[in-house]
Amino acid sequence: MGRPDLNRRQLLGGLGGLLVAGSFGFAALGTGADALAAGARTRVRYWNLFSGGDGYNMIAMLDSFRKDNPDIDVKDSTLQWGSPFYTKLAMAAAGNRAPDLGVMHLGRVTGFAPGRLLDPWDVGLLAKYGVREGDFNPVLWKRAVIDGKLYALPLDIHVQLCFYRKDVLKKAGLLGADGRMVPVTSTDEWFDVLKEAKKATKKGLQTLGLHANDQNFMWWFFVAFYTQLGGTFFNAADTEVTFDTDKAVQVLEFLRRHVTDGYSTAGAADGEQFINGAPFTWEGNWSVPVFSGAKLDYGATPLPPVFGRQATHAESHSFVLPHQSDRGGATNEGAHRLAAYVVKHARQWAAGGHIPAYTPTLSTAAYKKLSPQNEYVSAMDHQATEPKVWFAGSTGILAQRVGPVVVSASMGSAEPESAARRMKSTLAHLLTMKNPMDGRTAAQGGAVA
């Protein structure tokens, strides 16, 4: 992209340097010298951030790949989720000690200095292994393209959902003839639903799990409902803030009302309360294995379109190629082959609640039988995502700066009007900040699809 690659010293300086290096070290960044697995001709080093159920599902998918592709030795490493993962991946890429394949949240790709810390995918090589642009939702694919090149290969969409207990809603008269929650199309209808559900709820349980004091969840919910109102954050060139404080106030007042009207209890163990009989909880789709494992009679829909337009917060786990100065050859082809295989064989991944990004999977009989996945798969078509700027994405600076402001309004320590103004001011400040990965502002970052 016309600028020299960052070296490790420059990157550490931008990230806080000695603190980062001292916290994580460099032992895991080496390539290692252990022997290839028996029969293998090529090794692919793969870093991911999947733990818990996602971790087990990913291991099962990798084992299937190994069985079907004995000539490739996959050396996988699972690192700590969140900022530690991204810091280590950035250091490895800057020091030319990166793995051959990695995973990132799609919203973080723009900030990861594509062309410096990430290498573009060879779409011809992906096509050789059966993965093409036409196999993906157009909006999702466009988010993965920077300066005309594909820098991320989406694995899934993971979304915020409205989980509901069918037994409680049936008692409250809120289940339709199809056994699903009655549709909601306005804020008045939603609070009417909560009012009736509360009457059928066991004493001591909240009506809705909202995570009212969690900056990440509240930010995700804000993004969803602000998108329902048609709200935007920046202009196309990322030079001006287009944030609509009036729309923001509507969303903040809506979120706050759940607490002030007594439907949500800040600090409650939302998932546990749902398992114990609370009628609703708003959670990510990764909670599906938890609730299914508890053998609940439940359903899950995208967040209710209370402002008249469907939109639910969405992120995506995606495969990336961390920068290597000598990328190419059999190892690079093996990385493409592995990523394409996992994307195409995401049935196992769907069991964890995620919506597969590879759309042919969605039309299979096996996927259509998955419940409640088959109830919320439509979220793929109305994704509410953060803006495509370097400071956005899962656990990114945008959520860190704006999320607490949303919480302050929801919890009552700030009025929605003042919180909305503070959000706009924060967005304006973020536009002037330079990405420590490459020293560019959002306007200079070239996030052109």
Q: In DSSP terms, counting alpha (H) and pi (I) runs of 4 or more, how many helices? A: 18
Distance between the termini: 15 Å
Largest sheet: 7 strands, mixed
Class based on secondary structure composition and strand pairing:
alpha/beta
Radius of gyration (CA) equals 22 Å
How many strands appear in the DSSP assignment?
15
Average pLDDT, all residues: 90
Strand content: 5-15%
Helical residue percent band = 25-40%
Q: Please tell me what the overall shape is.
A: globular
pLDDT < 50 runs, ≥5 residues? 1-33
Describe this entry's structure for a reader.
The protein is an alpha/beta fold. The strands form 3 sheets. Strands 8, 9, 10, 11, 12, 14 and 15 form a 7-stranded mixed β-sheet that branches. It has helices at residues 8-15, 18-24, 52-68, 83-94, 123-128, 138-143, 166-172, 187-199, 215-228, 245-260, 270-276, 288-293, 329-344, 347-350, 365-368, 373-376, 397-410, 416-432, and strands at 42-48, 72-78, 101-105, 118-119, 145-146, 149-150, 153-154, 156-165, 208-209, 280-284, 298-302, 312-315, 317-322, 355-356, 383-384. 40% of the residues lie in helices and 14% in strands. It is built from 18 helices and 15 strands.
SSE diagram, text form:
Blueprint: H1 8-15, H2 18-24, E1 42-48, H3 52-68, E2 72-78, H4 83-94, E3 101-105, E4 118-119, H5 123-128, H6 138-143, E5 145-146, E6 149-150, E7 153-154, E8 156-165, H7 166-172, H8 187-199, E9 208-209, H9 215-228, H10 245-260, H11 270-276, E10 280-284, H12 288-293, E11 298-302, E12 312-315, E13 317-322, H13 329-344, H14 347-350, E14 355-356, H15 365-368, H16 373-376, E15 383-384, H17 397-410, H18 416-432
Parallel strand pairs: 1-2, 1-3, 9-10, 12-15
Antiparallel strand pairs: 3-13, 4-13, 5-6, 7-13, 8-10, 8-11, 8-12, 8-14
